[in-house]
Amino acid sequence: MKKNKKTAFVFAGGGSLGAVQVGMLKAITTAGIAPDFLVGASVGAINIAFFASDPTMQGALRLEKIWKRIKRQDVFQMSPLAGALSFLSMRNHICSEKPLKRLIEQHLTFDRLEETQIPCYIVATDLFNGIEVSFSKGPAVDALLASSAIPGVFAPVQLGEHYLIDGGVTNNTPISVAVAKGADRVIVFPTGMSCGLKTPPKGVVEMAMHTLNLAVSSRLKFDMEKYENSSEIIVLPVLCPLDVSIFNFSRTEELIDRSEKNVAQWIHNGGMNGPGNSKILTPHYH
C-alpha cells in the first residue's frame, strides 16, 4: 500500500455554476487537502488554470474575487445578426469568443500550461471524431477557449491538427484523465444541475447549455463505478435543490458561500472517508 496517495482534483463543466467549485475549493483548502495535479473541462478547466498558478488558499481567494466580478456579458456576447447568420448556415456559432478570451487573458498569470506551479490538464473534444483530448503544455488561452467552446454557442478552436469543442461533450467530469495520469485519489468538484428551476430556460444559449449539462451529468456515476477499483474516488456534495440557471451570473456570491459551508460541514461530518453522494448528480425529482 502506498503511504502517500497521489491526489488529483477534477473539475467538471457547468457554465455559471462553476462558482460552486470556488466555494468547494475554499473549504477543501481550509481543511488542508492539496492536489498533486488538476484536471478540468469547460468552466472547470478555467477554474483549475487560475488555481494552478497558486494552489493555496490565496489562490482560491483570488479566484473568488475574479468570479464575483464576472457578468454574463463578460462571457456571452450575442447579437441579432449573429443569430440570423447561424440560422442561415452562414456561421456555426452565435457568440463571439472575444469577451471570454479577454477575461481569461486579463486574469491568467502565465502564457503556457507548463508554467503552472502544479500540473494541470485541460480537456477538450475533437470535433470530427468525438475523442477527448487533454493538454498540459502549450498556449494556455487557446486550450481554455477550446475546452469551453460550447457547440453552436462558440466557434470550434483549431489547435495543431485538431478542431476542438467543449470538453464536456465527451467528458464533463474527466475522471478518466486523472486515473490515466496516475492518481490514487480523485476528488471530484461537480457543479451539479439546476434541478430546482420552476420555469424552462430562456433563449437558445441558455437552453443549449442546460440540456448539455443534463446530458453529460449522468456520466459521473458511470465513471465512479468504472474506476472505483483503479483509484479512490470522492465526489464533493453539490447544492440541491438548486434554482440557479447555468446561464445566470447574478448569484455568484450566494453560490460560493453556500457551497463553502456545505462542503465544510460535509468534511466535518467525515465526508472525506466515503465516496460522496452521487445520486443527486443523476436525474431526480423534488
Report on the architecture of this protein.
With 286 residues, this protein is of the alpha/beta class. It contains eleven helices and ten strands. The strands form two sheets. Strands 1, 2, 5, 6, 7, 8, 9 and 10 form an eight-stranded mixed beta sheet that branches. Helix 2 packs across helix 3 (57-69). The longest helix is centred in the last third of the chain and has 17 residues, at 252-268. Mean pLDDT is 86; it is low at 81-90.
Q: How are the SSEs ordered, and which strands pair?
A:
Elements: E1 7-11, H1 19-30, E2 37-41, H2 43-52, H3 57-69, E3 77-78, H4 80-87, E4 95-96, H5 98-107, E5 120-126, E6 132-135, H6 140-147, E7 157-159, E8 162-166, H7 168-171, H8 175-180, E9 185-189, H9 204-217, H10 219-227, E10 232-235, H11 252-268
Parallel strand pairs: 1-2, 1-9, 2-5, 9-10
Antiparallel strand pairs: 3-4, 5-6, 5-8, 7-8
Helix pairs in contact: 1-3, 1-11, 2-3
